[in-house]
Amino acid sequence: MISEPPLPADLRALFVDAADAGRSLSVPLPPGRPVVPEEEGGERPAFWLGDGPAPAGLWPRLRAEHARSGLWPLLLDSLDDEDEEYRPWGNGEVLPGDMSSPGEHDPDALLAHWWTWNTSEAAEDTLTPAERAAVTAPFGRTWPGLAPAPPVGADPDRIVDGLAEHLLAGHPSLRLGLVAAERGADAVTVAGWTGPMNHVGDTAEVSAVLRSWEERFGARVVGVGFATLVLSVAAPPRTRESALAIAAEHFAFCPDNVWQGQAPHTLAAYAERLVDDHSWTFWWD
Question: Which InterPro entries is this protein grouped with (predicted)?
Answer without folding.
Answer: DUF4253
